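A student in our group prepared the protein record below, which I am reviewing. Thanks in advance; the entry in question is below.
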Amino acid sequence: MSKTIVITGASSGIGKATAKYFAENGWNVVATMRKPENEKELGKLENVKLYALDVTDKAQVESAIAQIKNDFGQIDVLLNNAGYGLIGPIELADEEQIYKQFETNVFGCLRTIKAVLPTMKEQKKGLILNVTSIGGVITMPLASLYHGTKFAMEGISQSINYELNPLNIRVATIAPGGVSTDFSGRSMDFTVSADKSVAGYEKIVEAMNNFLNRGEERASTSEDIAKAIFEAANSETPKVRYILGSDAAQYYGMHRQMEIEEVQNVTKQFFGLA
């Protein structure tokens, strides 16, 4: 019997590449997204089925997972991929932006996890993969709220791994570095806008804009990440955290070898803030 993976945020980037890769390798793929009617490519693949699922809508999450269980009979892997990044000085972030960032990146993940657990407990097996980021381990300027959500999901994932392991349910995080997707276009929001003064933050905002415009020379592709996710899904002993990409490996190594003050100093120098 083919295994089944449920993917949130499958309309683009890592989610879409993962859906394709798993489908190519014989899995049943449940590709969820807010507006499946707009997806023209995945729906043409034989073993991919599209579902409407907005992780910020509790009722829709629960009804979609129930329907998926009814349609496929099992859920072997949940890939929590839906999310976005909020960038800019925290002073300029309004309450709605702050709430939305945590609502999507943290509470949305928790909703899908809680929704699939009864099925995984019933079948006595399962794997939950939460896409975090190297930004769930290290930080950079102007991404405090994004980092907060990713640090949160790293901690949550590690903790629930303890309680679910005895049930033969594993939990792991997927922590990529830079990925050459349209993340900065489709999946990024900014606290800075034309009607908000950046007085006092000009230098750091300019440095971040330069960083984002320059892009990561060593960025992984979505397909690279999809292959790593596939390996994790097929492992009998999945890792607790997958650091993916040469840039992420370097940042992670630096973080482990240095005191936090040293890490901060290196980051300040990188952004021209020292």
